[in-house]
């Protein structure tokens, strides 16, 4: 596999043509150039570095921020559902801070899920085990099973406007 350097405009163009999370840069270019798929070719997953993710976030391309997260080795290395849950929440906030703020009002039947103060979460249940969401002003309850964590992410992403396909892919990473 060869490495090529492209300017930011070309990079954004290729990234904006991604059809699904995890699609490689080679696959995107093959599709755009109408080249045949070569099954014997090695491909690298199209992922964003931290700097590129920040650039894409500034450009409002939240799907690319999530693509970077889903392809991130750190997420794959995490053995704890809580750690993966926190990484995903942090990426969602970085991708669309304003939409996250609006969506953070979601709640369950008896509990609120997010607050800017851990005491607000404790006031809604003494066993909520609030933890701070990294790189955000929010705290989230963590004393829930993995299914509930997935439901929280699903509800949050629905309010934020993500597609059902993207939501399913992210939820499967918890």
TrEMBL record:
**Domain Replication modulator SeqA C-terminal DNA-binding: from-to ranges:** 66-172
Question: Might you name a Gene Ontology BP term for this protein?
Answer: negative regulation of DNA-templated DNA replication initiation
Q: Where is the Negative modulator of initiation of replication SeqA N-terminal domain?
A: 1-36
What UniProt keywords apply to this chain's record, in alphabetical order? Cytoplasm, DNA replication inhibitor, DNA-binding
Which superkingdom, per the lineage? Answer: Bacteria
Q: Has keyword Cytoplasm?
A: yes
Q: Spell out the GO cellular component terms annotated for this protein, sorted alphabetically and separated by semicolons.
A: cytoplasm
Q: Where are the transmembrane segments?
A: none
Looking at the keywords, is Protein transport present? no
Report the InterPro entries cross-referenced here.
Answer: Arc_rbn_hlx_hlx, Ribbon_hlx_hlx, SeqA, SeqA_DNA-bd_C, SeqA_DNA-bd_C_sf, SeqA_N
**Localized where?**
Cytoplasm
Q: What does this protein do?
A: Negative regulator of replication initiation, which contributes to regulation of DNA replication and ensures that replication initiation occurs exactly once per chromosome per cell cycle. Binds to pairs of hemimethylated GATC sequences in the oriC region, thus preventing assembly of replication proteins and re-initiation at newly replicated origins. Repression is relieved when the region becomes fully methylated.
Complexes and interactors: Homodimer. Polymerizes to form helical filaments.
Query: What name appears for this protein in its UniProt entry?
Result: Negative modulator of initiation of replication
* Record lineage: Bacteria, Pseudomonadati, Pseudomonadota, Gammaproteobacteria, Aeromonadales
Q: Which gene encodes it?
A: seqA
């Amino acid at each position: 596999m060869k490495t090529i350097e492209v300017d930011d405009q070309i990079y954004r163009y290729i990234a904006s043509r991604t059809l699904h999370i995890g699609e490689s840069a080679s696959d995107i270019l093959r599709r755009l150039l109408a080249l045949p798929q070569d099954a014997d070719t090695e491909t690298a997953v199209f992922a964003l570095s931290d700097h590129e993710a920040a650039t894409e976030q500034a450009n409002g391309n939240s799907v690319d921020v999530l693509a970077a997260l889903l392809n991130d080795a750190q997420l794959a290395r995490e053995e704890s559902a809580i750690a993966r849950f926190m990484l995903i929440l942090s990426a969602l906030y970085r991708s669309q801070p304003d939409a996250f703020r609006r969506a953070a009002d979601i709640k369950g039947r008896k509990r609120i899920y997010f607050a800017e103060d851990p005491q607000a979460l404790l006031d809604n249940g003494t066993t909520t085990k609030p933890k701070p969401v990294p790189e955000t002003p929010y705290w989230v309850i963590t004393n829930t099973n993995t299914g509930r964590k997935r439901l929280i992410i699903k509800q949050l992403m629905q309010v934020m406007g993500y597609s059902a396909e993207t939501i399913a892919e992210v939820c499967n990473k918890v």
